[in-house]
From TrEMBL:
InterPro entries: 6-PGluconate_DH-like_C_sf, 6PGD_dom2, 6PGDH_C, 6PGDH_Gnd/GntZ, 6PGDH_NADP-bd, 6PGdom_BS, NAD(P)-bd_dom_sf, Pgluconate_DH. This is 6-phosphogluconate dehydrogenase, decarboxylating. Keywords: Gluconate utilization, NADP, Oxidoreductase, Pentose shunt. It comes from Streptomyces carpaticus. SUPFAM superfamilies: 6-phosphogluconate dehydrogenase C-terminal domain-like (SSF48179), NAD(P)-binding Rossmann-fold domains (SSF51735). Pfam families: 6PGD, NAD_binding_2.
């Protein structure tokens, strides 16, 4: 076989990935269950590079140079298993199967273990950036063995987005590490989007700005430390006018946010790992709440604050405070996401380099931003920070944002504007800072009703108070 790599599953993502590979001078074998798609790809885009179309699985495999590198781009779940089972028997020891779909990392771990038994490398590979990214340079998060990366890495790096000349692709870690990190990326994306949406809501309902004005504010922010793809596209969406009605586009869109599930996975996994990702969780819950029409309808009659909604005397000053609150909350959300990455890495033995993850998210993906350079720098020193919050750069930003952050959250509460992302971020920050937490009281309650025992601050051991008797303490 002559092809350096093959792609099977030629819907938009697979097709664009194959075109990206071909445009970079690689000979790409292409295959699809329905052969019409394969023919169409070669007809439409054959001039972009060297494609080797195959109609049968056997021809497809035969067209690949060894060790064979075969990328599967089909729907996550049963389809992925079906395609793996179709191709695995045709492959030989040392060949590499790449799953470029949005698989759950536990599925990737299972598939990797099963294929390793059969002498095959299986690489669960997170690919971020959507259709456009797949074609012009995505952020790529491959898991799997180090050996597989030696053969696959250069190909993937050649088609990834580039920032300052560096490819946005690195070997994340063994088995499911790549899909895990991609999952957390999406969770952080949910949190970031929610925070930006709250900033918009506050500028509109508290500062009294119209969407077009807010678009301008966001464009200004995008020239500063908040510079990011998400702020950029938010300004575009807010500046857009609905052609049919002449009204701001954002006002004619139904306010029920949908989700495909990776944010939910992030939170479910965080619960299992015992990692408090409250910013991501609030973002997932906020989308969920928005879709509960009957619940929201029933709640329309509930009373709000007695105080009228006062516009601050100085709306411009409030806008600056929202910018600071957004930046501080964003630091918290990302700190939580990185906590989850390091916790997952420890739990599964992945040895993930947290700075490298920041580096490959600087380009190609939805959360790409200047901000990620700071996170990378925070992990570049000798000893990684326990939390990003205490990195000197972020610590200073949090210090400067203090008053504004608190004022914005307090104002939101007083005026009845929901800001779950901003509030949860601030609560997390204050809880971590607290010298003593009311968790001590919770332990007392648990010991009272369930004899769950507690530890003491002054002595080793587990203790139980005989609440129903003379309230003496016994060592458990
Ligand atoms: P199709 O064109 O034959 O439907 C996205 O759905 C892509 O995954 C499509 O290219 C689709 O092929 C492919 N796909 C979906 N389910 C599949 C399966 N069970 N086996 C093979 N390919 C599948």
């Amino acid at each position: 076989g002559q092809a350096q790599i093959g792609v099977t599953g030629l819907a938009v993502m697979g097709r664009n990935l194959a075109r990206n590979l071909a445009r970079h001078g690689h000979v790409v074998a292409v295959h699809n269950r329905t052969a019409a798609r394969t023919r169409q790809l070669v007809e439409e885009f054959g001039h972009e590079g060297e494609f080797v179309p195959a109609e049968s699985a056997a021809d497809f495999v035969a067209s690949l140079r060894r060790p064979r590198r075969l990328v599967i781009m089909v729907k996550a779940g049963a389809a992925t298993d079906a395609v793996i089972e179709e191709f695995a028997p045709l492959l030989e020891s040392g060949d590499v199967i790449v799953d470029g779909g949005n698989a759950h990392f536990e599925d990737t771990r299972r598939r990797e273990a099963a294929l390793r038994e059969r002498g095959l490398h299986f690489v669960g590979c997170g690919i971020s950036g959507g259709e456009e990214g797949a074609l012009n340079g995505p952020s790529i998060m491959p898991g799997g063995s180090a050996e597989s990366y030696r053969s696959l890495g250069p190909l993937l790096e050649s088609i990834a987005a580039r920032v300052d000349g560096e490819p946005c692709c690195t070997h994340i870690g063994p088995d499911g590490a790549g899909h895990f990190v991609k999952m957390v990326h999406n969770g952080i994306e949910y949190a970031d989007m929610q925070l930006i949406a709250e900033a918009y809501d506050l500028l509109r309902r508290v500062a009294g700005y119209e969407p077009g004005r807010i678009a301008e504010v966001f464009r200004t922010w995008n020239r500063g430390r908040l510079d990011s793809y998400l702020i950029e596209i938010t300004a575009e969406v807010l500046g857009h006018t609905d052609a049919a009605t002449g009204r701001p586009f954002v006002d004619v869109v139904a306010d029920a946010a949908e989700q495909k599930g990776t944010g939910r996975w992030t939170v479910q996994t965080a619960l299992d790992l015992g990692v408090p990702v409250s910013g991501i969780a609030e973002a997932v819950f906020a989308r969920s709440l928005s879709g509960h029409g009957a619940l929201r309808e029933a709640a329309q009659q509930l009373p709000g604050p007695v105080r009228p909604e006062l516009h601050p005397d100085d709306a411009a000053q409030f806008a600056d405070q929202v910018e600071a609150a957004l930046y501080a909350s964003k630091i918290v959300a990302y700190a939580q996401g990185w906590h989850q990455i390091t916790a997952g890495s420890a739990e599964y033995g992945w040895d993930i380099d947290p700075g490298a993850v920041a580096a490959i998210w600087r380009g190609g993906c939805i959360i790409r931003a200047r901000f990620l350079d700071e996170i990378r720098a925070a992990y570049a020193g000798g000893k990684p920070p326990v939390t990003l919050l205490t990195d000197p750069t972020f610590r200073e930003a949090l210090e400067r944002a203090q008053n504004a952050w608190r004022h914005v959250v307090a104002t939101a509460a007083q005026l009845g504007v929901p800001a779950p992302g901003f509030s949860a971020a601030l609560a997390y920050y204050d809880a971590l800072r607290a010298e003593r937490l009311p968790a001590a009281l919770v332990q007392g309650q648990r010991d009272y009703f369930g004899a769950h025992t507690y530890r003491r601050t002054d002595r080793e051991g587990s203790f139980h108070t005989l609440w129903g008797q003379d309230r003496s303490e016994v060592e458990a």
